[in-house]
Amino acid sequence: MPSAPPRSTRQSATRTSSTTPVGLPVAQLVGTLGGGLLTVVVDAGGPAVDDVTLAEPGSGVFGQAGDLLLGVGVERPADATALLEGAAAVDSGAVVLRRAAARHRQVRAAAARVGVSLVELADHASWAHVVWLLRGVLDRAASGPAVRAEGPVLDELFVLADACAALVAAPITIEDTQSRVLAYSSTQDVADPARVSTIVGRRVPEEVIAGLRGRGVFRRLARSDEPFFVPAGRGLGARVVVPVRAGTEWLGSIWAVVDEEPPEPVMASLAQTAAVVALHLLRMRSQADLARRVSADRLRAVLSGDTHEAEGWLPPAPWRVVVLAGAHRDRSVAARGGAPRDAERELDVWESAARRRSWRQPLLAIFDGVALTLVRDVPGDTSPGSWEWLHGVVEEVAGVAPTATASAGGRVSRTVDLDRSRREATEVQRLRDAGRVTGTTTTVEDAWAAVTNARALGGIWTEELLGPVATLREHDEAHHTAYLETVAAWLDHPGDPRAAAARIHVHPNTLRYRMQRLSDVVELDLHDPETRLALRLQLRALGH
Fold first, then answer.
1. Burial class of 476 by CB neighbour count within 10 A (0 to 12, 13 to 18, 19+)
2. What residue ranges in 4-84 does DSSP mark as E strands?
3. Which uninterrupted H or E stretch holds 197?
């Protein structure tokens, strides 16, 4: 089996970077890249990936531990198997092969046998582009906690916007699929009013979007691969629209305000520029996703009790941990009467809403299957990321999804207490699910009575009840009486037999008769407050 040469003998061109290794699990690396370019075929665990190496089987170069080996030109199953064996010998992080080779049964079996993760590269993807994107993700991972989604990529988009403006001699904007402006050219002096509004607001005005949608521009944009000309009309100047795509995925668009349709060579040059813009948008998305993953991992760690260096990235105290729920439901399941949550989609909705309301780095994570956030809680503070600000976010989401709610744990000022706030938020959410807590936004302080009762009920074993409730339950089951619900109604409406009777839908005289007959079954001193408390807790534990 071939082995890797010592690191010192490698050619510098083989390894794509010399940054300090900070590894990512292969599944996380592939997921961060997005765009349908890479897919994990066999996940064998193995070391985290910290660098990218172009494999050279003929020269015995198989990288080293933690490398992502790129099998450029490896197409035959026998060659792919040999590459996997060489990668296993040096404990590589994973091997990337073209789709046809990666999906071959012999190759997948070899990957599983030697314990090397196998990743497939989409047919439409360029090896050079994938190396560039992977390098960007790994470089961002190497930068540690200071990961940000903005920065050099956005700067490069502005440069590309200027390059496009020079091609068509017209002002340019680069936009995402939601018509949000990502970059624009420096020459905007001939822009029409709609373009000025777009630049100032960093988003295409709604009335302009509606007009373009009515003319079928967005429908064509989502389906087209080639630039097209949109004549002037309805108060808008003429436009050239350039779709930005990666394979079959629509990533955004380039817009130019022009006087007339540019010649064919210019349109072809714009199409070539769009391919470069697509790479930048993929890289920007991968960096944003990496930042989100890093933030979520840190938040999960601190909520699990790992508070080391947490003060360095958490916002100033005090804080609350909040369970966010109800923004996303599986409609097919809900129609059958259930209401399970898709935690990832739930989190996506809340993150989108938080970013729309200016929280640039929202502290959100999935913890034990629910979406959580950590917010500051200072009275009067309505800035993004605060508890009072979150009220507005919940109201916004509830306008679309009426079941959207926020359940908050207690306010804490020490990182070691964040786990307690999380557990309290979870308690409030469980009570909400059980119908014991109402309201769109609720804190544990608001729900103190329900929380206290729930904690007390948690220690009651209904199979081994002490006192008269067990006897009454046996009597109800044997004689089809309703003493348990009668006592519960009596306790909930002391001194008001009419209200108690209405609660269980009987006449007040029937209620009084049942209470008199109770003495034939058990002895109850309903004048003793301790007895009343114990009775009510046991009855609540039984569902009354």
1. middle
2. 38-42, 51-54, 67-70
3. helix 193-201
Orientation of helix 468-479 relative to helix 483-492, angle to 10°? 130
End-to-end CA distance of the chain: 71
Distances (CA, A) of 41 to 107, 118, 215, 509: 10, 5, 43, 72
Residue 329 amino acid letter: R
Residue 215 to residues 205, 218, 241: CA-CA distances in angstroms?
A: 16, 8, 13
How many C-beta neighbours within 10 Å does residue 64 have? 22
Peptide bond preceding 318 in cis form (omega within 30 of 0): yes
Neighbours of 140 (CB within 10 A): 25
pLDDT tens-digit map of 231-288 = 887 667 888 999 998 877 788 899 888 888 889 888 888 888 888 888 888 877 766 6
Contact by Cβ (8 Å): 298, 311: no
Better-scored residue on pLDDT, 104 or 10? 104
The tokens for 16 are 């794509």
How far is residue 33 from each of residues 149, 286, 516, 543, measured CA to CA in Å? 13, 5, 73, 50
Question: pLDDT, tens digit, for every residue of 328-354?
Answer: 754 343 333 444 447 888 888 888 888
Predicted TM-score (pTM) of this structure: 0.52
CB within 8 Å of 128: residues ≥ 6 apart:
none
Question: What residues pair up with 371 in beta bridges, in sequence order?
Answer: 324, 366
